[in-house]
């Protein structure tokens, strides 16, 4: 017991008999224990599904085993759907309300319709059965759902490796780091904000945006997914590539190691002025071109 706690305990003893003081201290100790247990339970409830999070938080919390079981079922369902796709299951055309797939407008085959792929149907069914519903970040969760199932397989080739366009004109002789330099060529880092470019594929248009350096990487990725989600049909999934690395994999791998979401900030990955590449894939994992 530190000096401050001892002082408060002695102050509570004034005017009370030893029995009354002991009963009061026991009641306060029980209340503190209940508060600590409630806070610990709230922290566990906010933890996303992951097989290693039990070791990270320690102990058997209520409901944790159910979340781990749901995670295993999700992986099994996706692997089964991917095996079906490998044996010839293929979806080429989709319809999602007013939006349609990019192939429909090019081929003029707007009457062709198909149901969403089995992977997406299983994903929706599993989420609804887990009483979570389809959240506001459904596109991002589905991409992470696919990435967890593909953890043992190699990641798709980044678009920056697929015959990038030739660059003409002046090239910089040195690759200067932007951290702490404020305004600089290609972007800025000013007043806690970074300028990050998002390019729709290798030859797509570039859209820049201000990003708070203290924002989480997951929130930054979701903001980009939310912009594109109405463009591609259901069953597709997306990824972002930065310096030839998948941002979705950079979210999933630390999650499996027990790293919490709020511990991965934008400033830990970006300096400001960089470009990330947004790429969409169909249900079979083939890269597709989309336009917004």
From TrEMBL:
Residue spans of biased composition, Basic and acidic residues class: 1-23, 36-46
Top-level taxon of origin: Eukaryota
Disordered as annotated region, ranges: 1-61, 88-134, 152-179
Segments of skewed composition (Acidic residues): 103-113
Protein name: Uu.00g056590.m01.CDS01
Species this protein is from: Anthostomella pinea
